[in-house]
Design a protein that fits this description.
The protein has helices spanning about 1-25, 55-60, 65-75, 115-120, 140, 155-165, 165-170, 175-195, 245, 260-275; strands at about 35-40, 45-55, 60, 80-90, 95-100, 130-135, 150-155, 205, 210-215, 220-230, 230-235, 255, 280-285, 290-295, 300-305. By secondary structure, it is an alpha+beta fold. The strands form three sheets. The chain has a seven-stranded mixed β-sheet.
């Protein structure tokens, strides 16, 4: 009996010590690697997070009363400072590895520049990327371009002409000055290596991938429609920056738009088409992984996130 009591006491003490040890396990203080994979017909799509950064809704948004924008955020159970996602999308066609946008790289500080690490976590190496398609040359889409030593860089000629022309920098608002510098620095290595290939006309840029004009946020802004086996995914770039505000109020814009009126018209057209045709959307600035559908309900647009699927397999 004495031996049994000693055993029970030892077991209880061991369990208590184990509980203490488990409670003392260190916290990670980091997110898991930011990638999410899905199939689109025969194409494998990998969403990649470059990180999140505080987006100053109260000072950047235009054509909407600040009180209304804040109310929209509150209705979505959000508040300032709002963390804005920076997402990019990798398309494996089976014969090519194509990256749409590259994140901010080092240009936004420690918050971001995580895309290359997340690409590696997803099983790829930057050296494997064959082509990069840029929606537009803003810092948070083109800042990571230099990380891909073997890729061909593609974007609309109108976008390239705007950001690479010194006279345009002189005419632009002062807060955009560094955007011109960053764009020129990003493309310079590709120009030097002969891997800078803007397209002069919108349309097919690769089998199953079509570049669509989406001007307004920048003069040569493009979206990319990915199609495989009857399924469609629109990588739309900066059609929407703050979904809880701009989906119920599509007229709301941001001060970074080159043409507010043109950006509003493009957004209205794309939202309507996406809702009517039930396109899957890959959004640069909607909460990671930024994949979902647009629905129109009661005169407003709504974002329907893609349901999480723990399997990745061809349909």
């Amino acid at each position: 009996m004495k031996l049994l009591k000693q055993c029970l006491l030892a077991c209880a003490l061991s369990a208590a010590l184990a509980a203490v040890a488990h409670a003392a396990a260190p916290m990670a203080h980091t997110q898991a690697p930011g990638y999410y994979r899905m199939m689109l017909g025969e194409f494998e799509i990998t969403a990649l997070s470059d990180g999140t950064h505080p987006f100053p809704v109260d000072t950047v948004m235009t054509n909407i009363a600040p009180q209304q924008a804040l109310q929209d955020l509150a209705d979505a159970d959000l508040q300032l400072p709002l963390q804005g996602s920076i997402n990019a999308f990798l398309i494996n066609t089976g014969s090519k590895l194509i990256l749409v946008d590259t994140g901010a790289g080092a240009l936004y500080g420690d918050c971001c520049g995580k895309l290359a690490a997340h690409l590696r976590a997803a099983g790829y190496q930057p050296e494997q990327v064959d082509e990069i398609y840029i929606t537009h040359l803003h810092k948070d889409h083109a800042g990571g371009i230099p990380a891909f030593p073997n890729a061909v860089l593609r974007l609309s000629q109108a976008e390239a002409d705007y950001w690479l022309t010194p006279a345009n920098k002189a005419r632009a608002p002062a807060f955009l000055s560094s955007f011109f510098d960053a764009a020129q620095a990003a493309v310079a290595p590709y120009q030097a290596a002969g891997r800078f290939q803007p397209y002069t006309q919108f349309g097919a840029v690769e089998a199953g991938i079509e570049a669509l004009p989406a001007p307004g946020h920048t003069p040569g802004h493009a979206s990319y429609l990915i199609q495989s086996r009857g399924q469609r995914l629109l990588v739309w770039g900066d059609i929407v920056h703050v979904a809880p505000v701009q989906l119920p109020h599509p007229g709301a814009s941001v001060k970074y738009d080159s043409s507010e009126a043109q950006a509003q018209a493009t957004r209205a057209q794309v939202l309507q088409r996406a809702a009517e045709q039930h396109w899957l959307i890959a959004a640069a600035h909607i909460a990671f992984p930024g994949l979902g559908h647009i629905r129109q309900r009661h005169g407003e647009y709504q974002w329907l996130p893609l349901n999480y699927d723990g399997t990745v397999h061809p349909d």
